[in-house]
Amino acid sequence: MSYETILVEQRDAVTLITLNRPQALNALNSQVLKDLTQAFAAYDADPSQRCAVLTGSGEKAFAAGADIKEMVDKDAADFFLEDFFSGWQSGVVGTRKPWIAAVAGFALGGGCELAMMADFIIAADTAKFGQPEIKLGVAPGMGGSQRLTRAVGKAKAMEMCLTGRMMDATEAERASLVSRVVPAADLVEEALKAAALIASMPPMAAMVNKEMVNLAFETGLAQSIQIERRLFQILAATEDKKEGMTAFVEKRPGVWKGR
Ligand code: HXC
């Protein structure tokens, strides 16, 4: 399948998705959302694919934000009636299988918000994260004010949203916005390596682990600990649980059935 604004390739069990509007610093317009929605749905539906990596084309940007040129003439009623940005939740955040954002260069506004939709972010040493929407007279609209605050805490999130200040890769790692920083030249290979490792795990367990960690952001502690226990008990009924534990006892690698 070919897309207008992204490139998609499969490397064994890993899907690599590349934002491909380098002339606009990969700004996120409606077509990008449409393409990503289809690509993530195809990834989720393909049993041969077990992890995905999303990255930007060009060295300069992961994505420099929602497409300002697409938004400049819209008024409040347009945004409301289209429920603008709601598609990101269903089309991207709703992905059930794990995926990693590999960020080099600018991840600004919607670009930062898109990276934060990933299960985790690996950053190049060139990465710069920011929520500069205030300079345009607006505010984050794709979950950024909430996800950034949960990731880095109130002080840094508030400063970034109120001043538009960018955070470099070192600060982003220190603040737990990204899981680690790698040299820019190695970014995609490092992300693919991490994805291959995830892809080698029992796939249902990967999906359940993802759901469990996300629960921490969506539910109260007592309730999420109970849901964690129930999900653990469901996983215990899979053939891969039996295989995983038997393989450990027999000192051999597991062979996964995916159920
Ligand atoms: C549309 C964009 C864009 C964007 C860059 N471009 N960002 N187009 N939407 N968000 C385009 C530029 O217009 C230009 O194309 C080309 O990409 C290269 O950008 P330059 O500005 O020439 O590059 P440079 O001088 O290196 O500056 C890089 C930059 C700057 C600092 C990243 O481009 C910038 O500030 N971009 C906007 C960042 C931003 O404000 N993001 C948040 C958007 S709002 P042309 O053809 O013109 O030369 C958002 C959520 C909004 O994300 C929610 C509200 C409801």
Topology:
Blueprint: E1 6-11, E2 14-19, H1 30-45, E3 51-56, E4 61-63, H2 68-71, H3 76-82, H4 86-93, E5 99-103, E6 106-108, H5 110-117, E7 120-124, E8 128-130, H6 144-152, H7 154-163, E9 167-168, H8 169-174, E10 180-182, H9 187-199, H10 203-218, H11 221-235, H12 239-249
Parallel strand pairs: 2-3, 3-5, 4-6, 5-7, 6-8, 7-10
Antiparallel strand pairs: 1-2, 8-9
Bound molecules: hexanoyl-coenzyme A.
Hexanoyl-coenzyme A binds at residues 24-25, 27, 64-69, 106, 108-110, 132-133, 136, 138, 141.
The fraction of residues assigned to DSSP E strands is: 15-25%
Secondary-structure element pattern, one letter each: EEHEEHHHEEHEEHHEHEHHHH
Helical content band: 40-55%
Structurally, the number of domains stands at: 2
Overall form: globular
What can be said about the biggest beta sheet? 6 strands, mixed
Level-2 CATH architecture of the largest domain: Alpha-Beta Complex
Alpha-beta content class? alpha/beta
Number of strands: 10
Low-confidence stretches: none
CATH topology (level 3) name of the largest domain: 2-enoyl-CoA Hydratase, Chain A, domain 1
CATH class division of the largest domain: Alpha Beta
Specify the number of helices: 12
**For the terminal residues, how far apart are their CA atoms?**
28 Å
CATH homologous superfamily annotation of the largest domain: 2-enoyl-CoA Hydratase, Chain A, domain 1
Bound molecules: hexanoyl-coenzyme A
Could you tell me the mean pLDDT?
Answer: 97
Our Rg estimate from Cα atoms comes to 19 Å
Keywords: Fatty acid metabolism, Lipid metabolism, Lyase
GO molecular function: enoyl-CoA hydratase activity
Organism: Sphingobium amiense
GO biological process, one term: fatty acid beta-oxidation
